[in-house]
Amino acid sequence: MENENYEINDYSFLSEESVEKHFADINILLLSGKHIDHKYYAEYTALESYESQWRNFYSSLYKLNLITDMFDGSRYYYLDFTENGKGKLSDVSRNKELTELQTLIGLTLLDMYYQKYFDEEKIIYWTDIKTQILESDHQDAYKRILFNDIRDSYDEKEWNEVHTKFGKTIDNFDRLGWVEKQSGRNEELLFEIRPAIHRLAKLYKEELQDFESFSKQLKNEEAV
């Protein structure tokens, strides 16, 4: 029992150089809902090197679970704020739930990730998103929710509105570590989908088995 208590209260790893140097960044990122993978090399390495100690730290001091997950050969870390609600990324006092539109866009990106499964980097352009909306197996659901109408084509104003919706959601997903926005290129909406987007597949496992019915539910809830 004494050893167990000692382990729980032993935070000596925080004085290790690699941890001390990046502690503030790691703590802020995780508590804000960020999913940290190897793209955040320094922070990721500090978490990986002292994984069990970090887990005890967050469990003891914050009553939160540090989760280690893996998808597509890539490990990532995040704090599990979820209780029972689907789409909850954190306690409501820290972060709001995903909106219905954000949920749909997230599942759209998840589908696009699988389409680019063998690409080393899952880079997405605005033209890729337009093709997904117009030509994918779920095009009717996408059109119904994004445009409120199922047609073969849409005008520039309608596309600009959808572009804005995606842009705002991508900003949010970038903060979560689900995507990484790309800079220095002549594109208004350009990003890489990160493996942590797979968390949506875990949250919505049952619903994704019948996406059409699920998408209708999303639309109905959004209209309320």
What would your notes on this structure say?
This protein is 53% helix and 11% strand. With 224 residues, the chain is mostly helical. Strands 3-5-4 form a 3-stranded antiparallel β-sheet. Strands 1-2 form a two-stranded antiparallel ribbon. β4 and β5 (190-193) form a beta hairpin. α2 (17-31) crosses α3 (41-49), α5 packs antiparallel against α10 (211-223) and α7 (139-147) packs parallel to α10 (211-223). The longest helix has 21 residues, at 156-176. The radius of gyration is 20 Å and the shape is elongated. Residues 1-6, 83-96 and 220-224 have low confidence and may be disordered.
Low-confidence stretches: 1-6, 83-96, 220-224
- Determine the fraction of residues in helical runs and give it as a percent range: 40-55%
Instruction: Supply the number of helical segments.
Output: 10
Strands, total number: 5
